[in-house]
Amino acid sequence: MNPGPVAGEGFSRGDRLRKRREFEECYASGSRISGRHLQIFLLPESGSWRLGISIPRRVGTAARRNRVRRRLREIFRRHRSLLGSAGFRLVINARPSAAGATFQELLEDYRQILSRATRPGKAGR
User: Fold this and answer.
1) pLDDT of residue 118
2) Residue 82 CB contacts under 8 Å (≥ 6 apart), including other chains
3) What is the rounded distance in angstroms from the CA atom of residue 44 to the CA atom of residue 63?
4) pTM listed for this prediction
5) Counting Cβ atoms within 10 Å, is residue 94 exposed (0-12), middle (13-18) or buried (19+)?
6) d(C-alpha 7, C-alpha 102), whole Å
7) Which residues of the chain have pLDDT under 50?
8) Mutual orientation of helices 103-118 and 62-78 as an angle, nearest 10°?
9) Which whole-number Å values give the CA distances from 95 to 36, 51, 75, 125, in the listed order?
10) Residue 14 burial (10 A CB sphere; 0-12, 13-18, 19+)
11) How far apart are CA 92 and CA 112, in angstroms?
12) What pLDDT score does 82 carry?
């Protein structure tokens, strides 16, 4: 029997970016921070954090892309405390190297990128 997610660790539909326009606004106006396996775009938004994930075909087969997508959702879900209280749109673009990365390697890349993003005056473009 699976008890489900711990309180505050869920990932509901409202936590997702789903519309093309939401992604494009984040790409055009957000800060871009790159890591070894991931590239993250951050755009301030009132309210809570919302996540969008983009996995290009060059990452690999559909099965590989889906595995990377599941890992990134889980990292976001489990490590929301790294994000702080201000609301942002967060778009994660996976690089081709993400297909061969372990969960731990993706997590470390995510943590490093967010630590750079949360330093005052250091984020993005």
Assistant:
1) 72
2) 111, 114, 115
3) 32
4) 0.83
5) buried
6) 27
7) 125
8) 50
9) 8, 17, 16, 19
10) exposed
11) 14
12) 76
Q: Tell me the domains of the chain and their CATH numbers.
A: 14-118 (3.30.230.10)
Distance CA 45, CA 13 (A): 17
Q: Are 86 and 44 in contact (CB under 8 A)?
A: yes
Tell me: the pLDDT tens digits for 91-118?
A: 999 999 999 999 999 999 999 998 888 7
What's the chain's Rg over C-alpha atoms? 14
Three-state helix/strand/coil letters over the chain: CCCCCCCCCCCCHHHECCCHHHHHHHHHHCEEEECCCEEEEEEECCCCCEEEEECCHHHCCHHHHHHHHHHHHHHHHHCHHHHCCCCEEEEEEECHHHHHCCHHHHHHHHHHHHHHHHCCCCCCC
